[in-house]
């Protein structure tokens, strides 16, 4: 369902961050993307939701070549891919409820449906009781749970996460992983770039290691494979 064919990415400054990537990820898989800083993990992930365009090659999401997608079709793609960031990227002036509802409001869902769906999604991440709060009133882990709720509220088939536990303490990181596991169990494909060795080596999933813009290792139930 996600396929890269001979994908290259050269930034305008001349850095090649993807150097011939071929990969297939099936619906329902959970994939960790690991590798040293500067290896090209973020670039790999950003190309999957068209934050970056490949210089060469094809990126197919459910058969659609997103590298060739017209700008006007990008919002439609984004609706089918939930994205979670290391720094949450919540809208600071909106409540928890409003941050999560936003994605459904822009596609003009029925207000009644929006309310039901937002509250059930907040319930899934354990934050129903904090729906009225502002992001600044929440801990980092709670903010990340809001951003997870936002990313899945419109039931995307794919969730992309770039270092989602990078700003969180170990206990909070495990809580976030439990939510990811639940989301994956319900059928959502997850692709997660991470430096969290303990998590990768404990909750085993497919591991793709990237170095110098190339996939150097791809193992089912792999291990982290680096010292930190
Ligand atoms: P990682 O996520 O593994 O740290 P990145 O994909 O962020 O790796 O970066 C890979 C390489 O591409 C690095 O050399 C980085 O400096 C470079 N790079 C990343 N983003 C840009 C950009 N927008 N412009 C120029 N170079 C970039
Ligand atoms: P429950 O019926 O489970 O108690 P509620 O519908 O009362 O859930 O909502 C719980 C929280 O979500 C409340 O804090 C409420 O203010 C907030 N909330 C519900 N709907 C909206 C909305 N449309 N806009 C902003 N906040 C909302």
From TrEMBL:
Membrane topology: Peripheral membrane protein
This protein's UniProt keywords: ATP-binding, Cell cycle, Cell division, Cell membrane, Membrane, Nucleotide-binding
Single GO biological process annotation from the record: cell division
Keyword Ubl conjugation applies: no
Annotated protein name in UniProt: Cell division ATP-binding protein FtsE
Organism taxonomic ancestry: Bacteria, Bacillati, Bacillota, Bacilli, Bacillales
Family named by the database record: Belongs to the ABC transporter superfamily.
Purpose of the protein: Part of the ABC transporter FtsEX involved in cellular division.
Origin species: Robertmurraya mangrovi
Gene behind the chain: ftsE
PROSITE patterns xref list: ABC_TRANSPORTER_1, ABC_TRANSPORTER_2
